[in-house]
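ugh ok fine here u go
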Amino acid sequence: MSGLTGRRARRLVPLATALLASCAALPPAPSGGAGQGTARPPSTAVTSHEPPTAAAPSAEPQAPLDSWDALRASFAMDDCDADPAIMHWARQFTANRDGFEQQVAKSLPRLRFIQSVAVRHQVAGEFVLLPWVESRFRPVRGRHGQAGGMWQIMPVTAKALGLKVNQRFDGRMDVEAATDAVMALLQRYYGQFGDWRLVDYAFNAGEFAVRRIVSAHGLPPPEPAIPRLPVRKVTREHLVKLLAIACVIREPARFGVILPTLPENRHLVAVPIDHPMTVATAASHAGMSVDALRRYNAAFLDNRIDPAHAESLLLPGNRVDQFVEAMRKAGASGDAPPPITIREHTVQPGETLWAIARRHKLSTRQLERWNGLVGARIHPGQKLRLEPPGR
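structure:
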């Protein structure tokens, strides 16, 4: 904290965009909760922070909410002072104020995109910040059966959510597909439990674990903010951390931080793609570096962008027109899409099909099928496809 002595005077900078003014409305309560005949309202543990009732029509148009205000208005759980642990973690997150601001600024394009998806699915605004708790919004590569993506989704969960995961593409790192799948899942959990706190528990501990707890102990009362249910410490702390980062967004001045802004023309836009191309070609079309393009499209694991895996790319709004125009010109000129190198392996003396399959995390049956082999017999110098024909 000594490095903050003499810190320059701070002032809040208003956002220049009115994105997501519509999210001032909280999600509606479901028709029934888990194990009871009535549902809990979205704001089960707090009343002082509910958005105001819609005002009567006025002759003068109302100024739209800025993006941070809209996010705050969509919060549905408790505030900073509901539990000492919330304040503890809020201070932990902001202990390095400059570092916190830089991390939020780096995350802001993804955060704004998630915010728009949460509005569409009518999910409480706190869950827009869930990737902060999980990964600090980083598209973490899930290896060897580990959780992956900024939502930290396990492979078995990815399969249940319909997210593709293979050698060339990891849908858990697809910002658009993974966010839509997670938000739909959270809304489904809310339909079961009618309590956003239990939704967070279910995301961390699993739907069936929470269902068993509710069956045995009933739905928790609105207070305390952190329900006294027999969940693991890590699950309880997960909710505390979510409320803590929401606390910082709710009252940034309380922690001496400034929330960054993102010009509207840099909000991420999903742009359809209709044929395969290399990452370098896509970056050139958009006038971006390869690294910049990959930053928001990390799901493509090799040099190929293939609509068979994802039907769109995420681009900053100010790059969309250039990308679309470049695609149009390429189509109008009759230029064929640039060739994409097929992944293959040249058999070396002494190698076996089993060893090659293991090295590339494939099965011998896949190699046999993709290369028209009868049995496992191969010979030095033979080229083996490492992917299905037609890809």
